[in-house]
Amino acid sequence: MPLLMKEADERVAYLTLNRPDRRNALNKELCEQLCSQLVKCAEDESVKVIVIRGAGTAFCGGADVTEMRASSSQADIVAYAERNAHLLKLAPSLRVPVLAALNGPAVGAGAALALACDGIVMAEHATLSFPEIHHGIAPLLVWPSLERHVGRLAAFEILTGDGPITAYQALERRWVNRVVKSEDLQTEVRAWALKIAALSSSALSGMKRIAFASDGCSLEGSLLKAVDAYKNQ
Question: Which PANTHER family match (predicted)?
Answer without folding.
Answer: ENOYL-COA HYDRATASE, MITOCHONDRIAL, ENOYL-COA HYDRATASE-RELATED
